[in-house]
Design a protein that fits this description.
- The complex is a heterotrimer of chains A (357), B (374) and C (309).
- Chain A has 357 residues and is an all-alpha fold.
- Chain A is built from 14 helices and two strands.
- Chain A has helices at residues 14-38, 43-54, 58-83, 91-108, 113-142, 146-166, 199-218, 220-230, 232-237, 242-269, 275-278, 282-292, 297-321, 327-347; strands at 4-8, 348-352.
- In chain A, helix 1 runs antiparallel to helix 14, helix 2 (43-54) packs across helix 13 (297-321) and helix 12 crosses helix 13 (297-321).
- Chain B has helices spanning 2-23, 42-56, 73-82, 97-106, 132-145, 160-176, 193-205, 219-226, 254-267, 301-307, 309-322, 352-356, and strands spanning 27-32, 60-65, 88-91, 111-115, 124-129, 150-155, 181-186, 210-213, 231-235, 246-252, 279-282, 289-291, 335-336, 342-344, 365-366.
- Chain B has a six-stranded parallel sheet, with helices on both faces. In chain B, strands 8-6-7-15 form a four-stranded parallel sheet, with helices on both faces. Chain B has a three-stranded mixed sheet with strand order 9-10-12.
- Chain B starts with a helix and ends in an 8-residue tail after the last strand.
- Classes of the chains: A mainly alpha (357), B alpha/beta (374), C mainly alpha (309).
- Chains A and C meet through strand 1, helix 6, helix 12 and helix 14 of A and helix 3, helix 4, helix 10 and helix 12 of C.
């Protein structure tokens, strides 16, 4: 490590973080322009079209917002989990189980109409929280690493959904295809105008941001989370119960993902369908959304919108320019690489050290 | 001088005529796919048809988007119509119905067609091509070729479409070989080569020696060929994947529908007001589907002699089903489910509604059958 | 009768489990040195793609394996640079690698989809050894060369990790890099080396998929195998020999989820391999000696810098 000297910067300003992040995104755009050139497409035409189609018109903006709602909920919950150094890779499964619970509430609970919407959210939260707690329990009781349990529970959740839509919950109206019946209209979340933005979930997401922010900055739990995240040993010396903290964290993290699931099935699909359709990878992208927010809950709003925009951009690239649909992953990967690298510029001061003679 | 003026006027006329022809809208058509066009199945076939349409009709221009999640269909249609100025949109998956119906309402003067759907509107038609007759024909051949009397079938999802195909296949098998049985293994996916491979392996280990399947790749063909067993391709011409082992298969000509539909739109026969009753159901008679190892090869010549008299039976059945009166149908009673219930009466023919909602397994099917009625 | 079942199941499990085993062995080394690389899926699919086109063009599967593995290794070096020199959050760097690998191969591989591969590895039986009852039928009958390479590598890597001083070096860097550094070990070099091994083996596993297991190329063909590798790495307690068990048991359950369908509900069967991966550690945990080993390498995922410690 002789020639590169890296010193930790004491207090990276929010402005610096933001500025460097924007710069990284531009760099990613620049690099991906070469791929467009490789396809014989004028990169500037692409940039223009992307701008017009995503942020340049009201319709594009609504597309971004509704896709960022589940990202926000998953992301802000994961943010809390990561602060406690509990690597919850299972937001995808927690989202799906929340969707399952919400489906039960909407189709099979027999509740009166006016209770349905609160019920789906409550059930969604419980479904996701329970699913997350299973992994926590395995960690607490048997010391099994949470990366492996949360990851495997994702697959199990997917198969549970598949089982339900092919079997006991298959809807008679669906001509034998694997969907549940459509939810009763009382369980349909209202949307803003003719857009797809199901605003109750959006409000819940914003409330979640405020909630997590308050927890981290104002409560004892937040303090405990931070200590536990830095070092479980230090936590023990300070008299903090590691497992109690993790349990509470995962109830919140899993619960928020479950809320996202409830929002999706009640606000977008109005039924339960194939797991890959219910969640477009929101649980995994949520990890990135959480990380990019760098532990700052309000920032999750920005980062989830960023990814909503990336998804929207991917659609444009496909339709208007005929690029293969995997281009959106190249895009995301590049943006991440640049953001990560620039992270170093922000957190550390890098200087070239001349070798001493 | 007069000649020059005449020439000038002619050119002007031609010129404006050409512009008018240009201005007389190129028909802009959008295709929305549920999967990637690189698979060897459903989406790939639709995209091949799209390419044929573009080549055949110079007045058609197409755009497409692949791997579209069901929740995003409406958004994609919006973009196709607003930005790409599409006049016609095809949505190629059952799961797109919600978005298609909503879009049809939103854009009452644009034309939509939904594949494998059942909801219609003045500007929304349905279309579908089904394989059950082809599977029956393949079944005839499979029944004749099997030596162990165990035939393997790798199925995707236990939904009526696939069940209908397996049942038709088994009906064919039993007609030629009453002792044979069809072993089914489900992989719960439309495209998953690893699962298809291991499912086929498990069938090989269970003693099967002829194979058919519903999966969007040629994995089953590869595995069968590796083990030296005959196999029937699915959805794409898979002859080239194993020229010594692919006996026949199921093939589709989506372009037949697209060419017909689009020419009727272009000529004004179909408008955005009169599609309420337009429902294409393409079978052998219409030419929408074809039985074969590849286009133009009904039976692999290497296997013709092994089929013996069954070959003639197959040819006869093809003629019967292509007959405008459709003289033969595999689902002609008496047909019994494997639970012993009579599902099609003696001498009756299963109708369209019955075929679309098949949940039972016919006698001869062995294996798990999720959603089996009592 | 049941012996035949066991033989058939395990024989298939060896074929399916080989890419899992290769990937897990590599990730074990990476994580043993303290680097968490979640980019296995990306490296595997890069290996699958490059391996496929190399074999397609040169008609030589071994060149395909080599180049697939090298590309996987090269890709892992990106993660290595970001993790070791720039000290970024390793979870995200790995995810970025996965996304990028999936995307790049999906975009570049468009024209190669559906092309049949005419050359592959042939299966063969080892003459003497295949007469051993049961074991011979499983391991030494009708398997391809890479299965044996996988087994051999597991033994070799186990021996290196636990019986040589080089292995101690690797493990100490992962447990306590500060002390290792003080003892004069070049922490960065060891970590780079192990990361490369991880990428190399993941690429090799991916190449196996596209050249041997299913000779073809389709975008996304690894279908989540990289994630299973990550789980198996933890499951095997970062021990190469347990990894063998993990990979092959997972493969057996995967195969059985089809074989057992006539008797057990298919939905329940598909959950089996994943349930096993979670529940088996519970049983392992009951053993006190193993429980001591349950923890990850002490410094896993934490960037190390001399100035900071």
């Amino acid at each position: 490590m002789g020639w590169l000297r890296i010193e930790k910067r004491t207090n990276p300003s929010a402005k610096a973080v933001f500025g460097v992040s924007i710069l990284s995104i531009f760099l990613a755009f620049f690099v991906i322009g070469f791929i467009f050139l490789g396809y014989g497409i004028n990169p500037f035409k692409v940039y223009l079209e992307l701008f017009i189609e995503t942020v340049g018109n009201i319709y594009g903006i609504t597309q971004i917002i509704w896709q960022s709602i589940p990202l926000l909920l998953c992301g802000v919950g994961l943010l809390l989990a990561f602060k406690a150094s509990f690597w919850n890779i299972g937001a995808e499964g927690q989202l799906l189980m929340g969707a399952v619970a919400a489906t039960w509430a909407a189709l099979f609970s027999g509740l009166p109409d006016f209770l349905l919407i609160p019920a789906v959210f409550i059930c969604g939260f419980i479904g996701g929280a329970v699913w997350g707690l299973l992994s926590t329990f395995l960690r607490a009781r048997f010391r099994i690493n949470e990366v492996i349990t949360t990851l495997m529970m994702n697959y199990i959740a997917m198969n549970i959904v598949l089982y339900l839509i092919h079997g006991p919950w298959k809807g008679e109206e669906m001509r034998g295809f694997a969907y549940t019946n459509q939810f009763p209209k009382a369980a349909w979340l209202p949307t803003i105008g003719i857009s797809d933005i199901h605003w109750p979930t959006l409000l819940i997401g914003l409330a979640a941001v405020a909630f997590v922010y308050l927890i981290i900055s104002r409560t004892r739990l937040g303090y405990e989370v931070k200590v536990v995240g830095q070092s479980p040993k230090a936590a023990r010396y300070a008299g903090i119960s590691y497992f109690k903290t993790i349990f509470l964290v995962m109830i919140i993290s899993g619960g928020f993902a479950g809320l996202a699931g409830a929002g999706e099935v009640c606000g977008v699909h109005h039924m339960l369908r194939h797991p890959d359709q219910v969640s477009l990878g929101y649980g995994y992208t949520g990890i990135i959304v959480a990380w990019l927010a760098r532990g700052n809950p309000p920032a999750a709003i920005l980062t989830s919108l960023l990814f909503g925009a990336i998804y929207a951009a991917g659609d444009v690239l496909q339709l208007s320019f005929g690029l293969p649909f995997q281009i959106v992953n190249v895009f995301t990967g590049l943006i991440l690489f640049f953001l990560i690298s620039s992270d170093t510029l922000v957190k550390y001061r890098i200087s070239i050290q001349r070798r001493e003679g | 001088m007069k000649k020059a003026v005449l020439l000038f006027v002619c050119l002007l006329f031609l010129f404006t005529g050409a512009i008018c022809l240009e201005a007389q809208d190129k028909l802009k058509v959008g295709f929305i796919y549920v999967g990637p066009i690189g698979d060897m199945g459903w989406t790939n076939a639709h995209d091949n048809a799209r390419k044929i349409v573009e080549k055949t009709f110079p007045w058609v221009e197409t755009v497409y988007q692949e791997a579209v999640p069901e929740a995003k269909v409406e958004g994609v249609i919006d973009r196709m119509i607003r930005r790409e100025q599409c006049d016609v949109v095809f949505t190629t998956s059952f799961g797109f119905w919600e978005g298609t119906v909503a879009a049809a309402k939103k854009y009452p003067d644009k034309i939509f067609a939904h594949c494998s759907g059942f909801m219609r509107a003045p500007n929304l038609a349905n279309y579908m091509a089904d394989f059950y007759q082809l599977y029956y024909l393949n079944g005839l051949m499979a029944g004749a070729l099997t030596k162990s009397n165990k035939i393997g079938y790798v199925g995707a999802f236990p939904i009526p479409e696939v069940k209908r195909h397996i049942d038709a296949f088994t009906i064919g098998v039993k007609e030629v070989n009453p002792k044979a049985e069809v072993n089914v293994r489900w992989i719960e996916a439309w495209f998953d080569p690893a699962k298809a491979k291991e499912a086929t392996n498990s069938l090989v280990d269970a003693g099967c020696d002829v194979f058919a399947f519903t999966e969007d790749s040629d994995t089953v063909v590869q595995v069968a060929a590796e083990n030296g067993f005959p196999v029937f391709g699915h959805y794409s011409p898979m002859y080239n994947s194993a020229p010594d082992y692919v006996v026949s298969g199921q093939l589709v000509h989506w372009e037949l529908f697209y060419l017909d539909f689009l020419s009727k739109v272009y000529s004004g026969y179909y408008t955005s007001k009169n599609l309420e009753n337009v429902d294409y159901w393409g079978l052998l008679k219409e030419g929408s589907v074809e039985v074969g190892a590849k286009f133009g090869m009904t039976v692999n010549p290497k296997w013709k002699s092994r089929l013996g008299s069954t070959y003639d039976l197959v040819m006869k059945r093809i003629e019967q089903m292509k007959n405008p009166q459709v003289v033969f149908d595999p689902f002609t009673g008496p047909i019994y489910s494997r639970k012993g219930k009579m599902v099609v009466g003696s001498g009756e023919r299963a109708d369209y509604g019955h075929l679309l909602s098949i949940e039972y397994a016919v006698k001869g099917v062995v294996g798990a059958w999720p959603g089996e009625p009592k | 009768m049941w012996q035949l079942w066991v033989v058939e199941t395990l024989r298939r499990a060896l074929a399916y489990g080989t890419p899992l085993l290769l990937g897990t062995l590599g990730e074990i080394y990476t994580e043993r040195s303290g680097i968490l690389n979640l980019g296995v899926e990306g490296m595997m699919i890069l290996g699958a793609f490059v391996g496929f086109i190399t074999t397609f063009v040169t008609k030589n599967p071994w060149l395909g394996f080599l180049f697939g593995a090298l590309v996987g290794g090269a890709a892992s070096l990106i993660h290595g640079f970001l993790s070791i020199n720039l000290r970024v959050t390793q979870v995200v760097s790995g995810l970025a690698l996965t996304l990028f690998g999936l995307g790049l191969t999906g975009v570049l591989g468009r024209g190669w989809e559906g092309q049949p591969l005419k050359v592959s590895l042939s299966e063969f039986s080892v003459p003497f050894l295949n007469r051993i009852p049961i074991l011979g039928d499983i391991v030494f009958t009708e398997q391809n060369m890479l299965v044996y390479i996988g087994l051999g590598l597991a033994l070799l890597l186990w021996w290196l990790l636990f019986k040589t001083s080089w292995g101690i070096t690797v493990r100490s860097v992962g447990e306590d890099p500060a002390t290792a550094d003080a003892l004069g070990i070049n922490v960065s070099l060891v970590r780079y080396g192990c990361t490369f091994i991880g990428g190399f083996l993941a690429g090799l596993g991916g190449a196996y998929l596209s050249i041997v297991y299913r000779p073809s190329w389709t975008q996304g063909m690894t279908a989540g195998m990289g994630w299973i590798v990550i789980a198996l790495t933890i499951f095997s307690l970062w021990h190469p020999l347990i990894a063998v068990g993990g990979a092959y048991i997972f493969g057996s359950l995967f195969y059985l989820s089809f074989r057992l369908q006539p008797w057990v509900s298919p939905e329940l069967l598909t959950i089996m391999p994943y349930l096993f991966t979670i529940l088996a550690p519970i049983l392992l945990n009951a053993n006190r000696k193993l429980r001591r080993r349950m923890g990850a390498p002490g410094a896993l995922g934490l960037p190390y810098s001399r100035e900071e410690e």
